Amino acid sequence: MEVENDAAIAEESPKEEVPNKHDDKSEMKGEEYAYLDATGFTSELFKIELRGLPKYYGIGELKKLLNVKMKLSTNKIKIMKPGSPFIFICFRNQEDREAAIKALDGYKWKGKSLSAFEAKPAPDPLIRRRKEASTAEGEPLNIKRRTVEASATSLAYLTYDEQLKQKQSEMENVLQKFGKELWSSIPTLRTFVEKQRLLHGGLPCAFEPIRPSPMQDGYRNKCEFSIGKDALGVKRVGFRVGSYSNGFLEVESIAHLKHIPECMKQTVVLFEQFVQSSPFDVYSAETYQGHFRQLTVRMSHATGQVMVVVGVHLQSLSEEEKQTMKSSIVECLTSEPGKQAGISSIHFEVIQKRQQGQYTNPIEHLYGETHIEDTILGLTFRISPAAFFQINTPAAEVLYQCAIDVAAPSKSTSILDICCGTGTIGLCFARHCKQVLGVDIVEQAIEDAKHNAQKNGIENCSFFAGNSDDLIMSLIRHANIMPDQHESLIAIVDPPRAGLHIRSITQLRNARGLDKLVYVSCSPQSAIKNWVDLMRPCSKQLRGEPFVAKKAMAVDLFPHTPHTELVILFEREKEIKQELVVDSENICTDKPVDPQPET
């Protein structure tokens, strides 16, 4: 999946989760708590702290306990980190908060007695940081401020060869950490890990040289630009140079960034001029006022098409004002400079608080084509405004070819494409295998995948909308593998940064006939836990034979940034049983599988 190094957009409410230790409610009337009145509603007003949680629990099972079993009306659950002994839970009113405290205080869960009590609202981190960083004259010190170049392209000062050497070394460190985690958490694998280290220079599997990106400059086909003001108060479209929690909201120019293509820079300049002259103000995460907040620009290296998605807060605009805003946006982006930039598709995104089960904001098509198209490995792909598509198209070809090469499918192989997005990986595999079955939680992405299969004349691919945690076993049954006819099953996993939920890992482990798995990770550090769980010995939960990491390779999809994609081939290997120096009574006594938080 994609790694964005664009500056993050601030959340609707402060994210600081440190309990307020002051008892005097009068101390919550300063600037740091002004947001409680300014926002109209914030669940920070009805927050509780829950302590005494067990060492191993997942946010998913905690939500099930609170919302399903105990029927509590939670609005937000704020976890400090996986396995934290305390969390914060927010509600929509005082009645729900009191009911939760009554139900949870003293409740026994996993052998632990929980304690619940009221928690005071967190102070606004922006105001607090500014106070902490101010001098005697009241001027912010801005110690943590970085340039936009250092924030977005921190490796741009190195030659590309030097960048590749650094990334190869960093991925070696990740694999070493993976090996150490196997050693410490699974004692039964220590002999095996030691043998692998001797064979592979201290690593738990073979590691091939990093694959470079064919394009190093101007490679990004998607950027999400923030709309705000710079340090002088001038309205800008660009990237944030800090974060809300660090006390910085300034937006700076992206004109000198190496990884952004010229057509995007032209689009940003055009829209920045429009915003500066518009009667509608830019959105402020500090005051919650204003309208223009984000500009998403997508482009195609194959066709030169440019798609623009303007993200706004409607606030209390009348229908007439909304129409005026939309018309002025279209007029700006279809002007001669817009045509020169290649703008062919314009959309309007309403940024709002998402409801449970809602994964995207409402997006309205305003002008031109509804989609743009790009090509990978000779196939044409339709890209909708919110669909996932690798942000470096030329390097994506390298990545997908690596996945095909390590998987080595045959015409009797069925492919499970987990987190398939618009079907790019699965469709690239289609010509090499019997069939592809893909699943993704975003319905629009699945619609795009089906369209892409039809457009390319590919008939051996089926795509399903839904949560992969729930559908993997159904897909396997649908594949109808016949081992006696030498048919095989391979899973291709390309999850979000946080990795797969333990439910998905469990289903993959327990899947009969699935003997090979290719894990594509955009955040290798975060994926280590998934890799370890794939290799754990059999247990009541993980009934299927463990996988073994056989080969890894890095692909540079993000030149000038520290991010790297890592591909690891896992295979079921019965020989590993001989390395498990343990009797049947101890084979399930390893560290319990720690469910990952849902994202």
TrEMBL record:
InterPro entries reported in the protein's UniProt record: MeTrfase_TrmA_AS, MeTrfase_TrmA_CS, Nucleotide-bd_a/b_plait_sf, RBD_domain_sf, SAM-dependent_MTases_sf, TRM2_met, TRMT2A_RRM, U5_MeTrfase_fam
Record key words, sorted: Methyltransferase, S-adenosyl-L-methionine, Transferase
Positions of region (Disordered): 1-27
Keyword NAD: no
Catalytic activity of the protein: uridine(54) in tRNA + S-adenosyl-L-methionine = 5-methyluridine(54) in tRNA + S-adenosyl-L-homocysteine + H(+)
A GO MF term: tRNA (uracil(54)-C5)-methyltransferase activity, S-adenosyl methionine-dependent
Residue ranges with Basic and acidic residues bias: 12-27
Principal EC category: transferase
Highest taxon in the source lineage: Eukaryota
Positions bound to S-adenosyl-L-methionine: 390, 440, 494
CDD domains in alphabetical order: AdoMet_MTases, RRM_TRMT2A
GO biological process: methylation; RNA modification; RNA processing
Its EC number(s): 2.1.1.35
Active site (record annotation): 522 (nucleophile), 522
Family statement drawn from the similarity comment of this UniProt entry: Belongs to the class I-like SAM-binding methyltransferase superfamily. RNA M5U methyltransferase family.
Protein name, as recorded: tRNA (uracil(54)-C(5))-methyltransferase
Source organism of this protein record: Anopheles quadriannulatus
